[in-house]
Every structure is written in C-alpha cells, then in structure tokens.
Amino acid sequence: MKKILCLILLLGIAGFIQESAGAADTVPAEETVTPQVENVKLDMRDYDEVEVPAGTFIPVVSAQEISTQYCPVGYKVRFTSTNDLYMQDTNVIPENTEFYGYIEKLNEPVVGTNASMVIKISKMILPDGFEVPIRAYVYTSNNNIIGGEMSQPAEWIKMPHYQSKIGINTTLQIRPGRARKQGEHTIIKSGEDRLIILTDSAYITHTLTN
C-alpha cells in the first residue's frame, strides 16, 4: 500500500514540473522597440564676406585714459567707433563698434624725449555682439608711435636781431638752447578722438538665419 502511495506522489510531482515548464515556454519574449528618429530639418546659415583692405582708417574715441605713467606693457584698452564704415554699400563697421587691444610697446620719459607707446588692436565687437579678429594699430604719422616728441628746452638764449646794417632798430630774439628738460609722460585722455589703421585686411561676415 505504501509503495502505491509513493508512486502516485511521484507521478503528481512529475506532472507539476511538466506543467510549469510548458507555462514558461508560453511566456512571450520582450519585444524590442526600435526608436524612430525624426528627420529634423535644420536652419542653414548663409553669409556674405566683405574684405576691408589694409590701410583703412577707422575714427574712434578712447573709452578710458591711457597713460605711460601707470599703464604697463600689456595693459588692455578699448576704443569705440564714431562713424559707420561702408564697403560695397554695406555697413560693415557700424557706429559704436568696440575695438579691443593692448599696449604693445612703451618707453619711459628721458632727458630730451617724452614717453611713448604703441597700441595694438586685436579684435572688434559689433553692436550685435559679433566678434571679428583684426590686426590694427592706433595711428600716428610717426610709425604709429604715440608720443616720443622732444622735451621742452632747459634754457633759452637771447640773440640780437638787427633790422638794418647800421644797427638801428635792433630787437632781441630768443631761441632754445641745446639742453633739454626731462621728458614728460604721454596721455590719451578718455573721450579723445583717435584713428585706428588696419595693418592687414579684415574679413567681415554677416550671417543670416533663414
């Protein structure tokens, strides 16, 4: 009797295992979802390029005081354009464009010569924030050297000037002597008008978003 009960129990367990295995086979596998990438159309940018040639002058005004007395080499400076600059009927450098640069060279004042400096301009930023790298200098007729003139005479010499051969109506003239005073520092005042000259062509791009 015990053998019969054990046999029935074993048959029941075997049947349960088969039913569980069949149920597992009937569970559907997870479906693989492939993401759909939309065909997004990006707005393209178009641009026109205008060449501003080397030697072009740009009227500007100094945004700060710049002095050889307290501004070292590398001191950063800023100027602002005072007029619109047109090329091929296009306003390529509008008024209020900002020009950024630095003191490239500086000479202290000495006896006989005032201090001097050379200011290099490296970029400009249009009023809309568009930045353009450029190569330019604050212009002077003395090879872009600001200052560097002879200092004031240290002495004056009186010399008679005869208006006739017989010495009648003689006047005294004063001319500077050879000795010179200690030179003075050179200053560009805030708000002072200056010119910037391009030493290399600048390529201005105007981007348009469709």
Summarize the structure.
The protein is mainly beta.
Notes on the structure:
- The protein is mostly beta strands and 210 residues long.
- The protein has a domain at 45-153 and 183-209: Lipocalin.
- It contains one helix and 15 strands, in the order αβββββββββββββββ.
- The strands form five sheets. The chain has a six-stranded antiparallel barrel. It has a two-stranded antiparallel ribbon with strand order 1-15.
- It starts with a helix and ends with a strand.
List the helices and strands and how they pair.
Layout: H1 2-25, E1 45-52, E2 57-62, E3 66-67, E4 76-81, E5 85-87, E6 90-93, E7 98-107, E8 116-125, E9 131-138, E10 146-147, E11 156-162, E12 170-176, E13 187-188, E14 193-198, E15 202-209
Antiparallel strand pairs: 1-15, 2-4, 2-14, 3-13, 4-7, 5-6, 7-8, 8-9, 8-10, 9-14, 11-12
